[in-house]
Amino acid sequence: MEAVGAGLVDCHCHLSAPDFDQDLDHVLQKARKANVVALVAVAEHRGEFEKIMELSKRYSGFILPCLGVHPVQGLLLQDQRSVTLKDLDEAVPIIEKYRDQLLAIGEVGLDFSPRFANTDEKKEEQRQVLISQVQLAKRLNLPLNVHSRSAGRPTINLLLEQGADKVLLHAFDGRPSVAMEGVRAGYFFSIPPSIIRSGQLFFSSKKQKLVKQLPLTSLCLETDSPALGPEKQVRNEPQNISVSAEYIALVKGISVGEVIEVTTQNACKLFPKLQQLLQK
After folding, report:
1. Phi-psi group of 17: left, alpha or beta (phi > 0 → left; psi -120 to 50 → alpha; rest → beta)
2. Mean pLDDT of all residues in 231-246
3. Are residues 222 and 271 in contact, defined by beta-carbon separation less than 8 angstroms?
4. Are 213 and 176 within 8 A, CB to CB?
């Protein structure tokens, strides 16, 4: 499978975030100049579904939409809470409505951070929401774009149990040995620019081991814009995707060109509709 033009694919970003309301055109221009050929825009809650679909229409073939219900809900920091089945019930009809236009279902997953999932009941409800979305993705024949903060093993175990096959685990913070179970199942792992942040030894070393141990054929690139940029507290943008590519090249002792070529091939394997778009 050839990565046409070997441009970069940002496999996970939040372009509907208010952070980009004032200058999205400029942000996208900079991304194109940085040789980014596709942006996979994920949702977190149903309130942004229509905005994401509108962006995918306005920037057709460049912004590719994913709709899904994130394990953490609530627009403002102080309102954030663990997802409920009611959140999912309200979102599914909209996902169904746009099923033929979607690249994937996402952002979905588990988040067992203590401030969100502080009871077994909340963890179980998150699991039920994720199971429903895995089954929805299978029924619609769409890949999954997955969040797994503080829940690496439970997320991969659930995906395996449910028979999920086309899976991207974004910004995975679990052990590399757990990630390897995903690799054996054919799952992909995307690496954000925050990988290079210095002064956060535990944060960095765990993620860096992941890059070192996982085969290049299982890696993709992401920015998670506007979060997870090279510098903390500074808005991240899709143009920073090259930071991830350069870091992977450094760790693996290969050229940046090879990283771009292989990660774009990987993105095309993961997202069949992307392959069709890049061949046009």
Report:
1. beta
2. 96
3. no
4. yes
